[in-house]
């Protein structure tokens, strides 16, 4: 279902912490983040594998306004009688009505939108949506489908669909990059966006000390890809030998003394501050977002 390339993420989280106009590092796997930060005036390095970087390069050259209209594939799975109501749902401005209609059409066995839920929670779609490592266990992928449904409902309760383009991206697989990019030309963005094919931890470790003023990352430890711990946020101040700790250590090395790190995760929020930023991210798919000042004594600070 989700075929635009990469995982959706709301750059407004990074913009809330990263100092304007400075040098930052992000992941090519979250394409809207580097593109929108570059459009907002940041000098961005986006790191990822060759497929992620090539997909981002294509998006950089071909903004949403230049992409041909295509009928969302998911609509073909809905009965014709259910499609008008679904289009109307995407443009609702009343969160209470949104949740009521979502439950009626997806939870009620008689609801006509079950194909949408089935497509969203399909294992192959979840692996693409979250760019999950191949080592992620099937049981963890199934749990992630349940988490996604809870996240979606929680966001529907809090924000009008009409004002959230990520609703269309998630449910219809439509790109949302053009929604914020109107102030910058492609040339402006390209001049502030550097694409690098590399493993993020290796790339960060090879950088000069203090290079970046903000770093944006993703981890999947909550689903067993590390096998050592599931609460890396409590150990950011003293990284150990696990893959996530190595990544955090590399991030600390490459970051300015005042730099912030945004760490998105596919797991459950562990405290109110992680819940706050997961809800702040309009893309709706992240269960927890850790916001850390990498060189602070206690590494983690509360949300406002």
């Amino acid at each position: 279902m989700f075929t635009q390339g990469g995982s959706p993420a709301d750059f407004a989280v990074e913009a809330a912490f990263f100092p304007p106009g400075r040098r930052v590092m992000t992941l090519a796997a979250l394409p809207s983040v580097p593109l929108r930060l570059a459009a907002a005036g940041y000098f961005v390095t986006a790191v990822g594998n060759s497929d992620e970087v090539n997909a981002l390069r294509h998006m950089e050259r071909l903004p949403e306004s230049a992409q041909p209209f295509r009928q969302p594939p998911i609509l073909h799975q809905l009965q014709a009688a259910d499609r008008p109501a679904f289009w109307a749902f995407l443009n609702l401005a009343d969160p209470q009505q949104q949740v009521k209609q979502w439950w009626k059409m997806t939870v009620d066995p008689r609801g006509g939108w079950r194909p949408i839920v089935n497509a969203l929670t399909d294992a192959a779609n979840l692996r693409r949506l979250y760019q999950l490592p191949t080592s992620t266990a099937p049981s963890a992928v199934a749990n992630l489908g349940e988490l996604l449904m809870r996240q979606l409902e929680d966001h529907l309760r809090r924000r009008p669909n009409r004002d959230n383009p990520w609703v269309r991206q998630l449910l219809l697989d439509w790109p949302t990059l053009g929604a914020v990019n109107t102030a910058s030309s492609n040339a402006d963005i390209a001049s502030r966006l550097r694409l690098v094919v590399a493993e993020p931890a290796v790339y960060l470790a090879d950088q000069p000390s203090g290079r970046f003023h903000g770093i944006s990352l993703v981890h999947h430890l909550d689903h067993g890809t590390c096998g050592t711990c599931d609460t890396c946020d409590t150990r950011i101040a003293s990284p150990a030998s696990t893959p996530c700790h190595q990544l955090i250590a590399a991030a600390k090395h490459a970051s300015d003394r005042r730099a912030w790190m945004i760490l998105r995760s596919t797991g459950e929020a562990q405290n109110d501050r992680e819940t706050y930023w997961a809800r702040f991210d309009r893309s709706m798919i992240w269960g927890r977002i850790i916001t850390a000042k990498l060189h602070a004594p206690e590494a983690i600070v509360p949300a406002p």
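The CA atoms of residues 273 and 303 lie 5 Å apart. Strands lie at 23-27, 43-48, 193-197, 212-219, 255-265, 288-293.
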